[in-house]
Structure formats: C-alpha cells, structure tokens
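2024-03-11 09:14:02 DEBUG pipeline.ingest accepted 1 chain
2024-03-11 09:14:02 DEBUG pipeline.ingest length=353
2024-03-11 09:14:03 DEBUG pipeline.predict start
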Amino acid sequence: MSHRVTFVTTDPSWPARLAEHFHFVPAGVLPDLFTAGQVLPSLQPAVIVVDDRVADGVGPAEIALRLQGVLPQARLVLLSGPATSGLALPGVTVLCRDLPVIEVGRAIGLPPREVERSRVFAVTAMKGGVGKTTVALLVAAHLSRRPGRVVVWDCDFPQALIHQALRLPAEIPTLWDYLQETNAPIEAFIRPTPAGIYVLPAPLRPDQVIVPDERLAREVIGELRGLFEYVVLDNDAELQKNPIVVTAAQELADWILAVTDLEYFSLESFRRLMVALAGLGATERVAVVANDGRRSGEGPGEIRRVLKELGLGHLPFFLIPHSAAVRRSQREGKPPLLKEAEALVDFLLGGKG
C-alpha cells in the first residue's frame, strides 16, 4: 500500500512537503543519529531518510553502518552534499539534498498522490438508527469514483456496522488487532472491498474492547491520511462521550456530516447534536444530511426550522431518499450511486452544493 518513513533531520517540514505529492505514513522526525539509534527499533519504518548534516562530520559509510546495524531491513536514503551525492554504498540510496522534493519522493519510490491533499469527513449523529452508516457508505461510494482512494474507518466500536454492511468476513484483522500488534503497520489491517472502498474494521467480538481517546484519533487518522486521498469516519452515536468524534470535529475533519432522519425523536436528538457541535466550535465545517425514510409525518422543513432556531440556518443541507436502491444495497453489501449523494460529495470537494 505505502511506506512508513522516518526522517533524521533538523528540518521538521520534510514530512509535510513530501505528503503534498506522495503517499506514505510519517513515522517520526528524529534530530540526530544518536536518537535514531535509540528510537528506530520502536518506530519500525520501511524507509529511513537521513540528512547527513545531523551526523557531525560522520561520513556516509559510517552513517549507513550505524543505522543498518540498528534496523537492517529498512531502506536507507541519505541526503548529502554535491561531493558525495550519487555515491555507491550497499543498500543505500545517496541523493543530493538540494533536489526538489518531488524528485526525492520519486527516487525513494513513494507512490504519487492523485489529489493534492487528503480530506477527512466525519459522519456523526446523536441517535442510532438514523442512517449514519448509510450516509458514510454513500459518500465513500462516490469518492471511490474520483481520482484517489477512499478508506472508511469504522469507529462505531460497539456495533461494527460497516463490517456488516459491506458483508466482510467475520474473521479478519480489525483495529483491535492493530492495537495489539505494536510493530505491525496499519495497512496490514485495512481491507479492500468489491465496492472499491477500503475499510479499517471495528472489532466484532464483545471481548475486544477499544477505549477511544484523542491519541488514538490523531494516530490513526494521521496514518490513514498518509495512505489515502479520502478518509471517512463512521462514528458512534455518543458524540460527547467519544474522544475520537470530539477530536475529529475540533481539529482533524475537513467536514462533519451531521446526520438525522425525519422522525420526531430523531429531530430532538439532532437539536442536541447541533448544540454539541456549536459548543465544540465546529459548526462552520458542518453539512447537515437527512435520510428521508418516509416513516413519519415530519418533513425536511422541520430540520430547517431547528437550524434556524439555533442560528444555524445558513448551514448546507442535503436530503437523501431512502430508495429501493438503498434498501437493496443493504442486502447485497454494495452501496448504490445516488444523484443526491453525488451532489453532497461535489459540495464536500469544493463543487456546488
């Protein structure tokens, strides 16, 4: 899928500059060779990029000897001055540090990005059963038709609905296994599906308990952004009790999709959801999505009324019909392509809402 890359340099901008053009998982920026020797075994990168100016006069051959002794399976890329760039050393790529970033990435062999930067979309609600997972998959299905790749992280740990909706096999590695295997890269636990969507599954077994926290949110979302152009989070219905949702809403998500249906009690929960998002200071990145299941007498105007009462009438609003295609997809494990979901994705990516 991609590479875990550790940088040994005093320039902390290297990961961000490379990430503009290439897929990889940043695995730390270390300031010197001594720190690298201590920390690399725990980071387990596939590639180590070293600026030889951190070596205090140690030559390329000695740098290679030290780091290959610490992590012999990793590929070593040495950024050096004109006098030593291109030097032939066993198992080492020596490049001129003045090369453009894009040339360095190509020389390392990193896979290029299809879009300029990754986007994160957090799908959330304050009540179960309103169609949150359906919306996450409809959005992911349309994103999968755009340049780049899309992954859905199933953060609804108690239920694992993405796992069930896409008919994934029961006995596959999940996020729980990733957290147990401390040296395994996250890509080993990501599952491709026939729908063209990748999934980081939630655990199915009730004894595989995951306690969400801010660190987990930042770590996993950061790694997924390194690997994919689009990251969709299917969160559980306990926004204020789930630090992953809160952290995504406050700092990590490009857009938050606030989902409801048109039942009376769902609309009351939707009101509480919008108040909570306002309290997090996140409403300017919220798009409201309503699943119209036609199961009650309420209409879309009720949602607009609630938003107006809260001073949020300006928020973008999308209505998704609960059509026969959606019901059929829930049986077949393949999300449909709906024009209403396509309009939502166009808006999220900067098109017209």
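2024-03-11 09:14:41 DEBUG pipeline.report The longest strand covers residues 255-261.
2024-03-11 09:14:41 DEBUG pipeline.predict end
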